[in-house]
From TrEMBL:
The gene is secY. The lineage of its organism: Bacteria, Bacillati, Bacillota, Bacilli, Bacillales. SUPFAM superfamilies: Preprotein translocase SecY subunit. PROSITE patterns: SECY_1, SECY_2. It comes from the Bacteria. Component of the Sec protein translocase complex. Heterotrimer consisting of SecY, SecE and SecG subunits. The heterotrimers can form oligomers, although 1 heterotrimer is thought to be able to translocate proteins. Interacts with the ribosome. Interacts with SecDF, and other proteins may be involved. Interacts with SecA. NCBIfam families: 3a0501s007. This is Protein translocase subunit SecY. It is found in: Cell membrane; Membrane. One of its GO terms (biological process) is intracellular protein transmembrane transport. Belongs to the SecY/SEC61-alpha family. It is a multi-pass membrane protein. The chain crosses the membrane at residues 20-39, 69-94, 114-139, 151-169, 176-195, 215-235, 269-293, 313-330, 373-392, 398-417. One of its GO terms (cellular component) is plasma membrane.
């Protein structure tokens, strides 16, 4: 491990990328403490600690920016929501987007530009909803004598903050190491860990009772967290190898093919994206309902969409499973895989090339994806259930989601660094 860390700093390009990523993290952390003008953040900070689990989730993902009501208060979630919408519309719903999806890198750039515009539009809506909703929820002390101009200023500042975060994420992807948007969320969660540890240590579950029992309870929490981490790593790394045989071909004076290989199908090919998607969409109805917080139906949404409520848990699980299937089959198209194998003279032993191969790959991928989806859903809601049974603070009941994202992003980043080291003939984390 120490030799690998030493090798990283021997590669100039890799060292530059890591330092650039760390520099962006510093900028991000500074931004979480820059207040929105015209807002009494102390009032919000005091009342937010008793807020819903969904607000706690958003506050964790934003690294405390929501509790500080800083320029990054609504975080990167509008970008995630826009990405979901664009990907859904690219599945032959809007012909132009579907055409761009098939144009390779050029089409990706066009789609990315549309996603940016959609992000700004969604950010403005969410910023208005956030400012008006919180001002109604916490009273006029948050924004004294608020006018439309005050809400407009807050919305513009919050939208600018989200746009800046989106730009920072793209800069990390281009000049840093790993996926920039995922790393921004990763940085926010990691920054919130000390607060969660403090909340757990001060909870009635730990401090009540005798010293010996308090130690036992603490050890039990640590064991559960360690088991969750082991399970997440195991599922994230697990793959199913589909054997592929390529027939020999003679092209000119050279012979191609004839080798055996395999297709690595991951149990959880979607990674942590479904959890992020589900978390993002789950808070959308609550944000919209905040416009009409005095109405009965809006109060019902705010009460029942929390992640510790039965309806909220069911919706959360369904969305995680649905997005796992959606994202997996978008990234790994069985029909396209079968066509590519057939064009290159490849086949799965015992399976006919073409449509039969596509059907076989679809069946295998569906079973693997269902296993991965159920595991993601289970890990996401397990800490919520255990936290409710143990009486832990509501702000730490979203630990499963946080752990999934942190470990998933860490593994993906580690693999990126691993590839860079192997390419330059250095030993990485995995290779011995």
């Amino acid at each position: 491990m120490f030799k690998t860390m030493k090798n990283i700093w021997h590669v100039k390009d890799l060292r530059t990328r890591i330092l650039f990523t760390l520099f962006v993290f510093i900028i991000y952390r500074i931004g979480t403490f820059v207040p929105v003008p015209g807002v009494n953040k102390e009032v919000f900070k005091q009342t937010n600690t008793a807020g819903s689990d969904l607000l706690g989730l958003l506050n964790t993902f934003s690294g405390g920016a929501l509790q500080n009501f800083s320029i990054f208060a609504i975080g990167i979630f509008p970008y995630i929501t826009a990405s979901i919408i664009i990907q859904l519309l690219s599945m032959d719903v809007i012909p132009k987007l579907a055409e761009w999806a098939k144009q390779g890198e050029h089409g990706k750039r066009k789609t990315a530009q549309v996603t940016r515009y959609a992000t700004v539009g969604l950010a403005i809506i969410q910023a208005f909803a956030t400012s008006i909703g919180f001002n109604r929820l916490y009273g006029t002390e948050m924004v004294p004598n608020a006018t439309f101009g005050d809400y407009m200023l807050i919305a513009i500042v919050l939208t600018a903050g989200t746009s800046f975060l989106m730009w920072l994420g793209e800069q990390i992807t281009e000049k840093g190491i790993g996926n920039g948007i995922s790393l921004i969320i990763f940085a926010g969660i990691v920054a919130s860990i000390p607060t969660h540890i403090q909340n757990i240590a001060m909870s009635d579950f730990i401090v009540s009772g005798q010293t010996f029992m308090n130690i036992v309870k603490t050890i039990a929490i640590i064991i559960v967290l360690v088991l969750i981490v082991i399970g997440v790593i195991y599922i994230q790394q697990a793959i199913r190898k589909i054997p592929v045989q390529y027939a020999k071909r003679v092209v000119g004076n050279k012979m191609y093919g004839g080798q055996n290989t395999h297709i690595p199908l991951k149990i959880n090919a979607a990674g942590v994206i479904p959890v992020i998607f589900a978390s993002s969409l789950l808070q959308f109805p609550v944000v919209i309902a905040s416009f009409w917080s005095t109405h009965g139906w809006a109060q019902w949404i705010s009460s029942n969409m929390n992640i510790d409520r039965p309806l909220g848990i069911v919706l959360y699980v369904v969305m995680i499973i649905g997005f796992t299937f959606f994202y997996t089959f978008v990234q790994m198209n069985p029909q396209q895989m079968a066509d590519n194998m057939k064009k290159n003279g490849g086949y799965i032993p015992g399976i006919r090339p073409g449509k039969t191969t596509a059907t076989y790959l679809t069946r295998v991928l569906s079973r693997l994806t269902m296993t991965g989806a159920l595991f993601l859903a289970f890990i996401s809601v397990l800490p919520v259930i255990l936290g409710a049974l143990a009486g832990l603070p509501r702000t730490v009941q979203i630990g499963g989601t946080s752990i999934l994202i942190v470990i998933g992003v860490a593994l993906d980043t580690m693999k990126t660094i691993e590839g860079q080291l192997i390419k330059r003939h250095y030993k990485g984390f995995i290779n011995k």
